[in-house]
Write a structure and sequence with these properties.
The model has no long low-confidence stretch (mean pLDDT 96). This protein has helices at residues 23-34, 71-80, 139-150, 199-208, and strands at residues 2-3, 13-20, 37-38, 43-46, 49-56, 63-67, 84-92, 96-102, 108-114, 122-123, 128-136, 153-156, 164-169, 175-181, 189-195, 212-213, 217-218, 222-228, 234-240. A hairpin with a 5-residue loop joins strand 8 (96-102) and strand 9. The chain is an alpha+beta fold. The longest helix has 12 residues, at 23-34. It is built from 4 helices and 19 strands. Helix 1 runs antiparallel to helix 4. It has 2 domains: 2-122, 2,3-Dihydroxybiphenyl 1,2-Dioxygenase, domain 1 (Roll); 126-240, 2,3-Dihydroxybiphenyl 1,2-Dioxygenase, domain 1. Strands 11, 12, 13, 14, 15, 16, 17, 18 and 19 form a 9-stranded mixed beta sheet that branches.
Length: 241
């Protein structure tokens, strides 16, 4: 179990949420798949702790929010590095301060400066967030941008020869995600991956609840697959070795 009780260091994926037209229907699906319960504001709970959010909005896939101790300052760095602010820094009640931006390759992401909420309170265990990777046809632009804004160092991946994949590491050396260069990617997007105890059982629950999935892939890190909810939103799941 990995429980988070404080704000994460700069650039760490710290919160995920999904805008959907029918929050109640989305809760029914994700509750069946991951066993989540739900708070009054649509927050998804695992053992009573926030792990994600479902909110009323236009469906465009899962949003990832990267941690910052200074949302306004990081937003300025985003613009200086060639990104675009979609929503300027603003307070979210007493929970924190947030913004939304596009990187130069077109990838949407959020910023989160926690106050009473650091974001996901449980990570890196079954039914919780385990990683986020950017998939893009323009990896060079993305690598330069995220390294500049979040002080990431960039590392190649020797476990996947022939794949254009770059690890993103914080200054302390901790890996926080990656950039996957995919020439055929139709759009640049951050991909959310949830850890599960059993990939096949999770996909079976998703199918019974109205979702679909890809075939299971045996990767160097675990059994993974793409899961699509009944509303067309994709995320990945993995049972780590």
């Amino acid at each position: 179990m990995s429980q988070v009780d404080h704000n994460q260091p700069l650039g760490t994926p710290t919160w995920i949420d999904l805008p959907v037209a029918d929050v109640a229907a989305a809760q029914a699906f994700y509750g069946a798949v991951f066993g989540w319960t739900f708070g009054e504001t649509g927050v998804c709970l695992l053992r009573g702790l926030p792990v994600a959010g479902l909110r009323q909005g236009e469906g465009r896939g899962w949003d990832v929010h990267l941690a910052t101790d200074d949302c306004d300052g990081t937003a300025k760095r985003v613009v200086a590095a060639g990104g675009t602010l979609l929503t300027p820094p603003h307070d979210v009640a007493d929970l924190g301060r947030a913004a939304f931006a596009l990187d130069p390759a077109g990838g949407r992401f959020g910023l989160w400066q926690g106050r009473t909420s650091p974001g996901c309170r449980v990570v890196n265990e079954p039914d919780a967030l385990v990683r986020n990777d950017l998939v893009t046809a323009r990896p060079e632009a993305a690598r330069a941008f995220y390294a500049t804004v979040f002080d990431f160092t960039l590392d190649g991946n020797e476990d996947m020869p022939g794949v254009d994949f770059t690890f993103l590491r914080r200054p302390d050396g901790h890996e926080v995600g990656g950039i996957h260069g995919e020439p055929g990617a139709p759009a640049t997007a951050w991909v959310t991956m949830m850890e599960v105890a059993d990939t096949d059982a999770t996909l079976a629950r998703a199918a019974a609840a109205g979702g679909t999935s890809s075939t299971v892939d045996e990767t160097p890190y675990g059994r993974s697959a793409a899961l699509t909810d009944p509303f067309g939103n994709e995320l990945w799941v993995i049972a780590r070795y």
